[in-house]
Specification:
Number of strands of chain A: 12
Shape of chain A: elongated
Number of strands of chain B: 2
Number of domains of chain A: 3
Strand content of chain A: 5-15%
Shape of chain B: globular
Distance between the termini of chain A: 65 Å
Oligomer: heterodimer
Strand order of the largest sheet of chain A: 8-9-10-5-11-12
Structural class of chain B: mainly alpha
Number of helices of chain A: 23
Number of helices of chain B: 11
Strand content of chain B: under 5%
Order of helices and strands of chain B: HHHHEEHHHHHHH
Largest interface: A-B, 49 and 46 residues
Helix content of chain B: over 70%
Structural class of chain A: alpha/beta
Largest sheet of chain A: 6 strands, mixed
Largest sheet of chain B: 2 strands, antiparallel
Strand order of the largest sheet of chain B: 1-2
Distance between the termini of chain B: 51 Å
């Protein structure tokens, strides 16, 4: 019942807002109609920036540039070559998106302050061009006499134009919602929450960010297009640095990373200046103060504060999830078909003057459990990082069968079937347990943008199937907790299982585990022991760094011992336990007796 | 030509000075002070009020400006950075920007919108050097800036406080464990950064006029310089600042003032594309 209401609430709200938009102008007059149109436009721009600043977690201080590109593209096509509001719209959107792509491609090797710099710089460049290239843009004068939008051959009055703008804003909101609830939304939030884990499950963080930036620019370009036609004239003044800050404030104030945030933030930001009209000189002072205050008082923005408990992502299919039944745990996970060993050959790794690894080589047989042991500082984790592509080795090769995979990016290696878990579980904290596992399926990333935006039946069917698979994987690992809990709220043991389930979603041939037993209690270690045995029956090889010798000796087929970056010994558990060098360096006397 | 180079050199030194302010806060607290431009402006305004309106001598005005800006930095860090530092870059970028905007507009409200000049014997009469007219101040600026940079380096390397700052920059946790008050160090870094901006302001004020809006673009350009040189590399920043100042002046001289912004900020994007850690930086391995 509740689910039904929730599903319909969107349609009801959209209809209501359109009806309101139809009747409202008669009561409030043209001035306020224009103001409301402006806030609807700001809603669209805020959705765009929210995708970047909220869902991906990257600040842009130059989105006014995309607003300008959309506005000028529309205005110039209309005034110079006679395009109309509708026919010019796709060009405005595409041009802004292309500009976004152009900026995003180089910048996402960077993040944080560097990205801020690129966006600031881009904003200033675009603004300077608007002023400077007067032949095209009209310089400081701008573009005048932009024709009113038409619909069915009729010129739209301000009142009807308002309805059109609200309809477009509503449509943008719906598409945003669909996008965020699709696998794309999961990828976005995954990249924000934990870029390293995102790479480890086969996501190219750079690609995801670039896509988000492009979509973001497209939406802001659309907003700019609407702005130009709504006003009838544009000039560079409207696209200064202040405008970028204005957008960002609207997003932050409304609630970054929430779907409804822009709907709350944008109108407030549009009407606030109205309230302050008597204090024109104080306006920016009050803006600035408001930003700082809202950071203090409403760190999650208005919407984020109201819906504090919800996960960062709404679920696509099931709003309420039944508890896992353990009976499904008997179901087998996929079987790896090809028998290709993963091998390391003469790996050297040097950090500055420190030789962390000196010529390590060994091979992990398909479907076997291979342990890597050695004292702290022996280079075990470094070796895993080389294997998984987080470090490029100074020399040496990593091979998968006969193919060298040395120096590939972590996500490329993950996609070749080498999954990874970390010493401290690296989950996507704000996502639910189930969403964490769902994010791990590599094929979810191949869902087409149109499928995501339109929630096609095919996507829904795929999602339902993934849902079942994800639950099955969680059951396989023995996870018996709440599927809808935020990952960051889980106890360590559960986090570990969720991380393993997510890694298994990759259908790995090899699962690389860094100290999976660390911090677990004896019962949990026993369970882990059995879980690794179950994985072996599915033909998944496991490479394991571990200090719990009971566990290592019980489950390993082969053991490699590292000491000071060198391979000390390799063999079966029995051979290793009897090796005097290993005993001296690591195991100690009592272990053998 | 020579004139463009020499005055570009002076301007570039100011950029470097303010850019070093970004460097100082970035290495200690991994945050940037986006109010740097406003801090520079505030330094110049205080100097002007003390010397022109109250008639105190210039050295006193400079002293007051630098001291008050040190205080400004401490307050800024405490109120607008520390509460948000753990929350990711969105929060502190916005909060420091917002403080900058507030400061800028309060000054315009109190001080008036039109810029005012500071009269100084150093900008009264241009000197003739190889046919170029250049103010004595423009020749003094590079000297002053170099002295400050070297003094700062010595302070950093030798003094106890300098060591504590470096330790904080290197490893926050370890510094904490060694009994260094990391919060205090972050506050200090903001004070230093604002003081560097203030020095930039008092040096630049007599040349370009003092007003609420003088800092904004210069603050951004200094940021560009810091990025080009490499946020972690003071020497790189110094070189980048000089280069930027000279190149910008030349391009501005030949192609007009909008062209120089397009060039300058285009250059930043290009540099970041080709060398993400700046021209003089090295890429660091990330820790997994």
């Amino acid at each position: 019942m509740l689910v039904q209401i929730k599903r319909w609430s969107w349609i009801v709200l959209t209809t209501l807002s359109l009806v309101a938009a139809w009747f409202l102008p008669a009561y409030i007059g043209r001035y306020y109609t224009q103001m409301l149109s402006l806030s609807a436009i700001l809603v669209i721009a805020s959705h765009g920036l929210n995708l970047l600043a909220g869902y991906i977690g990257q600040v842009s201080l130059g989105h006014a540039a995309f607003y300008a590109i959309g506005a000028y593209a529309g205005a110039l096509m209309a005034t110079k070559i006679g395009f109309g509001f509708w026919s010019a719209m796709p060009f405005s959107i595409v041009l802004a998106a292309l500009a976004g792509l152009l900026i995003a491609l180089p910048s996402f090797k960077l993040d944080g302050p560097y990205l801020s710099m690129v966006t600031i710089a881009f904003g200033i460049i675009v603004h300077s061009i608007l002023v400077e290239w007067a032949d095209l843009t009209g310089g400081t004068q701008g573009v005048l006499n932009i024709p009113r939008p038409t619909l069915l051959g009729q010129r739209l009055l301000i009142e009807k134009q308002f309805v059109v703008i609200v309809a477009i804003a509503a449509l943008a909101t719906l598409l945003m919602r669909n996008l965020i609830r699709s696998p794309w939304g999961r990828n976005f939030v995954a990249v924000r929450e934990n870029p390293i884990a995102a790479e480890a499950i086969g996501l190219s963080t750079q690609r995801v960010k670039t896509i988000a930036f492009t979509i973001s620019a497209a939406l802001v370009g659309l907003a700019g297009h609407l702005f130009a036609f709504m006003q009838g004239f544009i000039s560079p003044e409207a696209f200064e640095f202040d405008t970028s800050i204005f957008f960002l404030t609207s997003v932050i104030f409304g609630g970054a990373g929430t779907l409804l945030g822009p709907l709350a933030g944008a109108p407030i930001m549009t009407f606030l200046p109205e309230l302050l009209q008597g204090f024109v000189d104080y306006r920016l002072i009050i803006y600035g103060t408001l930003i700082v205050l809202s950071l203090y008082v409403l760190p999650r923005g208005i919407v984020g504060t109201v819906f504090r408990r919800q996960s960062a992502l709404p679920d696509l299919i099931f709003d309420r999830l039944p508890k896992l039944t353990t009976s499904t745990a008997a179901l087998p996970v996929h079987q790896v078909s090809d028998d290709v060993p993963v091998a390391l050959h003469g790996i050297h790794m040097t950090f500055g003057g420190v030789k962390a690894l000196r010529g390590i080589g060994f091979s992990v047989a398909p479907g076997s459990v291979h342990a890597l042991i050695g004292p702290n500082g022996a280079g075990k984790t470094v070796l895993l990082n080389v294997l998984c592509g987080f470090y490029a080795p100074t020399s040496g090769q990593v091979t998968l069968g006969k193919v060298a995979i040395t120096g590939l990016t972590p996500y490329a290696i993950a996609r070749r079937g080498i999954a990874r878990t970390f010493q401290t579980p690296q989950l996507f904290g704000e996502m639910t347990v189930l969403q964490n596992v769902l994010a791990g399926f590599p094929e979810q990333g191949r869902c087409g943008l149109l499928h995501a935006l339109l929630r096609t039946p095919r996507l829904m069917a795929e999602e339902a199937e993934r849902n079942a698979k994800a639950r099955n994987l969680l059951a396989f690992t023995g996870y018996d907790g709440d599927l809808a809990a935020k990952a960051k709220s889980l106890p360590l043991g559960h986090q570990r299982l969720v991380e393993i389930a997510r890694a298994l979603a990759l259908s790995p041939r090899l699962l690389v585990m860094d100290e999976p037993a660390a911090g677990l209690n004896p019962k949990e270690i026993d369970d882990l022991d059995r879980l690794i045995a179950r994985m072996r029956t599915c033909n998944i090889a496991v490479l394991l760094v571990e200090h719990h010798m009971d566990l290592v000796m019980a489950i390993s087929d082969r053991i490699t011992v590292l000491d000071h970056g060198e391979k000390l010994a390799e063999g079966t558990p029995a051979e290793i336990q009897g090796d005097p060098r290993v005993i001296a360096a690591y195991l100690g006397e009592e272990e053998v007796n | 030509m020579i004139q463009l180079i020499l005055s570009g050199l002076a301007l570039g030194c100011i950029y470097s000075l303010i850019a070093l302010g970004y460097h100082v806060t970035f290495v200690t607290s991994k945050t940037l002070n986006f109010a740097q431009g406003s801090a520079m402006m505030l330094g110049a305004v205080i100097m002007l009020i003390v010397t022109v309106d109250f008639g105190y001598p210039a050295y006193f005005g400079i002293f007051v400006a630098i001291a008050l800006l040190g205080l400004f930095g401490v307050v800024l860090e405490r109120l607008a950075v520390r509460p948000f530092a753990h929350r990711g870059s969105v929060a502190w970028v916005l909060s420091t920007l917002a403080v900058g905007i507030v400061v800028e507009n309060v000054v315009q409200l109190v001080f008036g919108k039109s810029p005012r000049g500071i009269e100084s014997s150093l900008v009264a009469q241009p000197l003739k050097i190889a046919g170029a007219g250049i103010y004595p101040l423009e020749l003094i600026i590079p000297v002053v800036v170099l002295v400050i940079v070297f003094a700062a380096r010595i302070l950093y390397a030798k003094s106890m406080v300098g060591r504590a700052l470096r330790a904080t920059a290197y490893d926050r946790e370890a510094a904490l464990a060694m009994g260094i008050d990391v919060n205090k160090m972050n506050g200090l870094s903001y004070a230093l950064s604002s003081m560097l901006a203030a020095i930039g302001g008092v040096l630049l004020g007599p040349l370009i006029g003092v007003g609420g809006q003088m800092g904004f673009l210069i603050g951004l350009k200094a940021f560009a310089v810091a990025i080009i040189g490499g946020l972690q590399y003071p020497v790189g920043i110094l070189v980048a600042g000089l280069g930027y100042g000279i190149a910008e002046n030349m391009i501005g001289g030949y192609f007009g003032s909008s062209a120089k912004e397009i060039f300058g900020f285009g250059l930043v994007i290009l540099v970041l594309f080709l060398r993400p850690s700046g021209l003089f930086g090295r890429t660091k391995l990330r820790r997994v």
